[in-house]
Design a protein that fits this description.
By secondary structure, this protein is α/β, with parallel strands linked by helices. The protein has two domains: 86 residues, Rossmann fold (3-Layer(aba) Sandwich), CATH 3.40.50; 134 residues, NAD(P)-binding Rossmann-like Domain (Rossmann fold, 3-Layer(aba) Sandwich), CATH 3.40.50.720. Strands 1-11-8-7-5-6 form a six-stranded parallel β-sheet. Strands 3-2-4 form a three-stranded parallel β-sheet, with helices on both faces. The protein has a two-stranded antiparallel sheet with strand order 9-10. It catalyses: (6R)-5,10-methenyltetrahydrofolate + H2O = (6R)-10-formyltetrahydrofolate + H(+); (6R)-5,10-methylene-5,6,7,8-tetrahydrofolate + NADP(+) = (6R)-5,10-methenyltetrahydrofolate + NADPH. Keywords: Amino-acid biosynthesis, Histidine biosynthesis, Hydrolase, Methionine biosynthesis, Multifunctional enzyme, NADP, One-carbon metabolism, Oxidoreductase, Purine biosynthesis. Belongs to the tetrahydrofolate dehydrogenase/cyclohydrolase family.
Length: 294
């Protein structure tokens, strides 16, 4: 078993981003600027946004965290997004999910200027991704592809099984793995909770991407010998063993599956760190105007 080490890969890529950001700042007279909007005080969201802001500082970006109480109206939030869209000093905008029930996440996503949509969720970016055109790729799938590329994992002609069909990870991951690119050129099966004979489907995978949101769902008897296993799951449980008061588990039973896998990502220390890298790279490209010229 070999470890797909998100800590190692993300550190290397962030160093490259830091150098590019310094060059951009010297030429443009300002730093790449990411704005994150956080509504309410969800514990997971607080942690994620704090990590994104901290990483922006590490690579030489400017970052702004705009916070709203849970009772902000949808109209007020959309008005703020419109204001940010028009600000030429802001390169990227993310609105942290989940949002309160009275706010439509699709309406919020579509309100963000697709040229500042560094999360890669806007329908224009998703459509361009499907057509293999330049776009902002959703941060988690983007990070996974960067990891596969870093380790030289052979994907061409391989059978890939994606477990979970969310618009954030599963669906875009299936598109990226199938594209005529490197990494890519896989034959992809996209599975989900209604898939018949799910165990047999996963067993056929040379590459397995688990993004179903269920602790230790993929077990050793579901993975064939030598498979490459990507664990996207971040399942939090309260724990007296850690300082934070909770422990993270993946969607893959690491202890069992690692004995059969040729390569596997840990949780924590795997895909989560690569998601941040995907976001940072998108933000840098937004600032430089390489995908959508300014």
């Amino acid at each position: 078993m070999n470890l797909l080490d998100g800590k190692l890969v993300s550190a290397k890529i962030k160093e490259d981003i830091k150098q590019e950001a310094a060059s951009f700042t010297a030429q443009a007279g300002r730093k790449p600027h990411l704005v994150a909007i956080l509504v309410g005080n969800d514990g997971g969201s607080e942690t994620y946004v704090a990590s994104k802001m901290r990483n922006c500082e590490l690579v030489g970006f400017e970052s702004t965290n705009i916070r709203y109480d849970v009772d902000i109206t949808e109209a007020e939030l959309l008005a703020k997004i419109g204001e940010i869209n028009e600000d030429p000093t802001i390169d990227g905008l993310i609105v942290q999910l989940p949002l309160p029930k009275h706010i439509d996440p699709d309406k919020v996503t579509e309100a963000i200027d697709y040229r500042k949509d560094v999360d890669g969720f806007h329908p224009i970016n998703l459509g361009r991704m499907q057509r293999n055109l330049p776009c902002f790729i959703p941060a988690t799938p983007y990070g996974i592809m960067l990891m596969l590329e870093h380790y030289g994992i052979e994907t061409s002609g391989k059978k890939a099984v994606v477990v979970g069909r969310s618009n954030i990870v599963g669906s875009p991951m299936s598109i990226l793995l199938a594209r005529n690119s490197t990494p890519g050129n896989c034959t992809v099966t996209l599975t989900h909770s209604r898939t018949a004979n799910l165990k047999e489907e996963i067993l056929a995978g040379d590459i397995v991407v688990a993004a179903i949101g269920r602790k230790n769902f993929v077990t050793a008897d579901m993975v064939k010998e030598g498979a490459v296993v990507i664990d996207v799951g971040i399942n939090r449980e309260e724990s007296a063993e850690t300082k934070s008061g909770f422990k993270l588990y993946g969607d893959v039973d690491f202890e069992g599956v690692s004995k059969k896998a040729s390569w596997i990502t840990p949780v924590p220390g795997g895909v989560g760190l690569m998601t941040i890298v995907g976001l940072l790279k998108n933000t840098l490209e937004a600032a430089k105007g390489t995908i959508y010229p300014k």
